[in-house]
Design goal:
CATH superfamily of chain A: Cytochrome c oxidase-like, subunit I domain
Radius of gyration of chain A: 24 Å
Shape of chain B: elongated
Helix content of chain A: 55-70%
CATH class of chain A: Mainly Alpha
Number of domains of chain B: 3
Helix content of chain B: 25-40%
Oligomer: heterodimer
Number of helices of chain B: 8
Largest interface: A-B, 104 and 101 residues
Strand content of chain B: 15-25%
Number of helices of chain A: 20
CATH architecture of the largest domain in chain B: Sandwich
Order of helices and strands of chain B: HHHEEEEEEEEEEHHHEEHH
CATH class of the largest domain in chain B: Mainly Beta
CATH topology of the largest domain in chain B: Immunoglobulin-like
Number of strands of chain B: 12
Number of domains of chain A: 1
Strand order of the largest sheet of chain B: 3-2-1-5-8
Largest sheet of chain B: 5 strands, mixed
Chain lengths: 575, 337
């Protein structure tokens, strides 16, 4: 079976249609079930919240720049870090990654849409509603009798601080309901992704030929099924505690605070991998293309991803080393946490091996991917430090932990998301992003990032706990905090450049064409932006890199794969 | 180019270990903190070695294999290499060996700290976390105090560790004095234990390390390690009922006839409240407001007038006393040495 891809250059019908009224366009976006439009809405929605969450972070950094500052009150500060954490995890990380998944998965597996288009739209809109509900707390949080207030219980909302006696008013309920609703959306999208990948691959695309991006989204969606359940259950129990008088987490009446921690972290740690796996997925597509080489060790990459998926379900109590689990419990979670570094290391080594011997093109997209690789290495190493339970007794809940997980969430995930924007923006809009601005964006962001998050490890080691709205002057933390805050400003400037680049390139960027990067997966075989039906004819593929086979008929991947992995097909070919 | 930015951070880390700071985890002054310190040195050297090797390979690859052509056009594609099982195996097995080694070293410290043999002469202190202050009770000595923990120094040849039995009256808290030991959470409905053995006389600082509500930031910890004689004298003094100075009878009256007594205890008087800190010897403490300001009449007066002046969110309400009563009650509390 050979690769057959009708490389069509059909014009999108919409491009020639007369300009429509904005109301009609709005109607088109609201009622759409097209996976590409839903994907773009996810991304746009996440970018809005990225700006909001980033602004909250900036306010916090202003407050912490000097000791005993009175820029914001403790009540406001506690609301800021709660909203910042909740926003960034649930209303930036999840939607932006689901957005890219939605947009790319059908294109990469040669399908015309997701398996359940209406469910897809439903998932998006319920998640979007959840985000607005969370922020409505600023208006309605304290109920009718008072001014509004944001939730201020921290993004993991430890019991019993969430009990009505400690959190009166409704702000905590907005938090609970927002997470409950967005969880429903996440489950819906995960279900859609799994079904699409299992059932809608084009002819010839066996699981062993599935590009790594959909492979990893499959693992990520599986984790979503397992992780969101406990979170939703815990939110329902919390609501029962608050309004029906049950006592799951109500320690004043015999409930258990530790039970909440278990429920939250058995969601929370897989959640970290739900967020970071798509970053791996982007890296698996982008690093090979800009190294001009096939990914090194495809089967090992798949196995490592699946391995990370399973092991990540057994590490949650490493967030609880200081809770008093006893030495037996602690050492179990030490071991599980350390083991997860093995498949993670395999991934880093495979990316390095992919770069090795390639012809590396340092585009803006690739620069962000290299930044990701370096920062993910550092984040992994500080993760090993934190997995050593006694070291965690010192570092846990300090600024060292804050630095560590921002290294993952910003240094790895956000860098890879930026990389993905530079890589797939031409496919999504038909226009190239400005490379020069992209490189300015990269260097400014790298400088700001390292100024903020390298130095943030230090006050943690000097004893500064997280979530304090101010600190004592005699602890030696001030100079570090001042530098950390100045890095935040540089990152803000870089982000503004990026937003400007996206907007101006949309109108003035050079036309991208269907395949600007000379890449190898199916999304580059169709016009940019793709027509609503994606593929005029469903392609048939014979290898993991169908466009490579077309471009290099003398040296196709099919040869390699038949020799290695597919004796059965070889027989068919011979017959 | 990336390695230089990384080394920036690492230099900073090393520098910080050299500078004297009151809450530096790399300046241990007690056994639990010291065993964590030595374990952390092992972990830091292993991770630093991994960092140097992997980041070095990354830098090498970027320099060596960077495409010379500006846009890669007109160049031949490099040879396609799809993988190698031997290489995959090697970078699976070597990390597993490192993990085993680290795990064994970690387990040893976990057990020697959490399952340490408790000496018969160890001192017992019950620590109760409150929003937003610390209650310390010495059950065998009949002492109750707040925010300033006194323990005997535990140097050779006479080791005298202090065992802390910890719980919380409201939300979760965490007891963290970095130079003495790692942190341990105080959780309502759960009893945790930890031990400290400061080996030098002096004051050790720390603060609550688990977000516990509005004023989490000013829930500071002060541990005084006294010589055995000083500690014995301190205990003897704390066991006495409150000083009854007739010169401040007016302030005493104000205290006893206002809401103060429903939350505070002053032993030897009618004030037996349990919600706020025990004030029997408050005048003898170096700080007020959970260690946030020095204990002098001016600060005390301002705190009583409105605790939010120092600790917004503190559960003690503003007392709305007139100037005269405020002065009187401040004078009274100052005498409670």
């Amino acid at each position: 079976m050979a690769t057959q891809i009708p490389v069509n250059e059909l014009h999108d019908q919409g491009a020639q249609a007369p300009r429509r009224l904005w109301l009609e366009m709005l109607h088109g976006w609201v009622t759409t079930v097209d996976h590409k439009k839903i994907g773009l809405m996810y991304i746009g929605y996440a970018l809005i919240f990225l700006v909001v969450g980033g602004f909250e972070a900036l306010l916090m950094r202003v407050q912490l720049a000097i000791p005993n500052n009175h820029f914001v009150s403790p009540e406001v500060f506690n609301g800021l870090f709660t909203m910042h954490g909740t926003t960034m995890v649930f209303f930036v990380g999840m939607p932006i990654l689901f957005g890219f998944g939605n947009y790319l998965i059908p294109l990469m597996i040669g399908a015309r849409d997701m398996a359940f288009p209406r469910l897809n739209a439903f998932s998006f809109w319920i998640s979007a509603f959840a985000g607005f509900l969370l922020y409505f707390s600023y208006i309605g949080g304290s109920g009718l009798y008072g001014a509004g207030s944001a939730p201020d219980v921290g993004w993991f909302a430890y019991a019993p601080l969430t009990a009505r006696v400690f959190s009166p008013g409704h702000s905590t309920d907005y938090w609970t309901l927002a997470l409950l609703l967005t969880g429903i959306g996440s489950i819906g999208t995960a279900l859609n992704i799994v079904t699409t990948i299992i059932c809608m691959r084009c002819p010839g695309m066996k699981m062993s030929r599935l590009p790594l991006l959909p492979w990893i989204y499959l693992v990520m969606s599986g984790l979503t099924f397992v992780a969101i359940g406990p979170l939703t259950a815990a939110q329902i129990m919390l609501m029962l505690d608050r309004y029906v008088g049950s006592h799951f987490f109500d320690t004043q009446a015999g409930g258990s605070a530790v039970l909440w921690m278990h429920f939250f972290w058995i969601f929370g740690h897989p959640e970290v991998y739900i967020l970071v796996l798509p970053a791996f997925a982007f890296a698996n597509e982008i690093i090979p293309v800009f190294s001009r080489k096939a990914i090194f060790g495809y089967p090992a990459m798949v196995a490592a991803s699946v391995g990370i998926g399973f092991i990540s379900l057994s590490v949650w109590a490493h967030h609880m080393f200081t809770v008093g689990l006893g030495p037996g419990g602690n050492t179990f979670f030490v071991l599980a946490t350390m083991i997860i570094s093995v498949p993670t290391g395999i991934k880093i080594f495979n990316w390095l091996a992919t770069l090795w011997g390639g012809k590396i093109q340092l585009t803006a997209s690739m620069m962000f991917a290299i930044g990701f690789l370096f920062q993910f290495l550092v984040a992994g190493l500080t993760g090993i430090m934190l997995s050593v339970a006694p070291f965690d007794w010192q570092l846990g809940n300090s600024y060292f932990v804050v630095a560590h997980f921002h290294y993952v969430l910003v240094g790895a995930i956000l860098f890879m998301v930026f990389s993905a924007f530079y890589y797939w923006y031409p496919k999504m809009t038909g226009r190239m992003l400005n490379e020069k601005l992209g490189k300015w964006h990269f260097w400014l962001f790298v400088i700001g990032f390292h100024l903020t998050f390298d130095l943030m490890h230090v006050p943690g080691m000097l004893g500064m706990p997280r979530r304090i709205y101010t600190y004592e002057a005699d602890r030696g933390w001030m100079i570090w905090n001042l530098l950390i805050s100045s890095g935040a400003i540089i990152q803000t400037v870089a982000t503004i450049l990026f937003v400007y680049n996206m907007v101006s390139s949309y109108f003035k960027g050079p036309i991208a064409g269907s395949d600007p990067w000379d890449a190898w997966t199916l999304e580059w075989s169709i016009p940019s932006p793709p027509p609503s039906y994606n593929f005029a004819e469903i392609p048939i593929v014979g290898s993991r890199r169908p466009l490579w086979d077309l471009k290099h008929p003398d040296d196709p991947d099919t040869d390699y794969e038949m020799g290695q992995a597919d004796p059965q097909e070889k027989q068919e070919e011979g017959a | 180019m990336f390695a230089s930015q990384g080394s920036c951070g690492f230099t900073a880390i090393i520098l910080s270990a050299l500078v004297a700071d009151p809450t530096n985890i790399f300046e241990p002054a007690g056994t639990p903190a010291r065993s964590i310190f030595s374990l952390s040195m092992l972990v830091l050297s292993i991770t630093a070695a991994i960092f140097l090797i992997v980041a070095g390979i990354l830098a090498y690859v970027l320099v060596k294999y960077r495409s010379r052509a500006s846009n890669g056009e007109g160049e031949q594609e490099p040879p396609q290499i799809y993988g190698s099982n031997q290489i995959e195996l090697s970078w699976t097995v070597i990390p597993i060996l490192i993990v085993v080694m680290l795990f064994l070293a970690t387990t040893r410290v976990v057990y020697t700290t959490e399952r340490a043999q408790r000496p018969a002469n160890a001192l017992d202190v019950t620590v109760i976390g409150h929003q937003f202050w610390w209650e310390y009770r010495y059950p065998e000595l009949g002492v109750v105090t707040a925010n300033e923990l006194h323990v005997p120094v535990s140097d050779h040849p006479q080791t005298l560790p202090t065992y802390l039995t910890m719980s919380s009256a409201d939300t979760d808290h965490s007891f963290w004095v970095p130079r003495l030991a790692g942190k341990m959470d105080l959780i309502p409905n759960k009893v945790n234990t930890m031990w400290i053995d400061p080996q030098m006389k002096g004051l050790y600082l720390g603060q609550c390390a688990q977000y516990c509500g509005v004023q989490h930031a000013k829930m500071l910890i002060r541990v005084y390690a006294d010589s055995p004689e000083e500690f014995a004298a301190w205990v003897e003094h704390q066991r006495q009922p409150a000083v009854d100075d007739p010169g401040v009878a007016e302030g005493r009256n104000v205290f006893m006839h206002n809401a103060c007594i429903s939350c505070h205890t002053i032993r030897g008087t009618v004030a037996t409240g349990r919600f706020g800190p025990d004030l029997t010897h408050v005048g003898g403490r170096e700080t007020i407001a959970s260690g946030s300001v020095p204990n002098n009449p001016a600060n005390l007066r301002e705190f009583i007038d409105n605790p939010a002046n120092f600790k917004p969110g503190a559960l003690m309400p503003p007392m709305h006393l007139d100037t005269h009563d405020l002065d009187a009650v401040t004078a009274y509390l100052t005498t409670l040495k």
